[in-house]
Amino acid sequence: QVQLVESGGGLVQPGGSLRLSCVVSGITFRITDMGWYRQAPGKQREWVATITSGGSINYANSVKGRFTISRDNAKNTMYLQMNSLKPEDTAVYYCKGRVYWGQGTQVTVSS
Fold first, then answer.
1. Distance in angstroms (rounded) separating the CA atoms of residues 35 and 66
2. Residues 93, 6: Cα–Cα separation, whole Å
3. Pairing outcome for strands 105-109 and 57-59
4. What is the pLDDT of residues 20-52, one digit of tens each?
5. Distance (Å, rounded) from C-alpha 26 to C-alpha 77?
């Protein structure tokens, strides 16, 4: 059974930071390209960042320079460090590996 479980979301003030985690089981994590996506209320789900099994990284322009994606293959875990958060970053954040999605974690940026 494949499971992707996100955690680390919450309420943070503009300019603050959060670190999201995605723990993966049921697939061979170390050879799986992984990604973060988000969906704001009333909007379509959008891609945020990708990290390949080989460590190549790409970011959406909207988060470049503020977010950092990483992975720890020994822990079957992917991370998203989010700094300088803005209200427009408010969304449910999802991790994805192959065709599998996590359940999402809510991030709310508000004063």
1. 16
2. 8
3. unpaired
4. 999 999 999 999 999 999 999 999 999 999 999
5. 12
Cβ-in-10-Å burial (0-12, 13-18, 19+) of 30 comes to: exposed
**Mean pLDDT, the chain, integer:** 97
- What residue type is 7 in one-letter code? S
Average of pLDDT values for 4-31?
97
Residue 92: both structure tokens together? 């449910």
Structure-token match 């359940």, residue found:
103
**Residue 55 one-letter amino acid:** G
Beta strands at 46-51 and 57-59: parallel, antiparallel or unpaired:
antiparallel
pLDDT, mean of residues 64-68: 98
Q: How far is Cα 110 from Cα 107, in angstroms, rounded to an integer?
A: 10
d(CA 83, CA 66) in angstroms, rounded, equals 5
Decide: 101 and 36 in contact? Cβ < 8 Å.
no
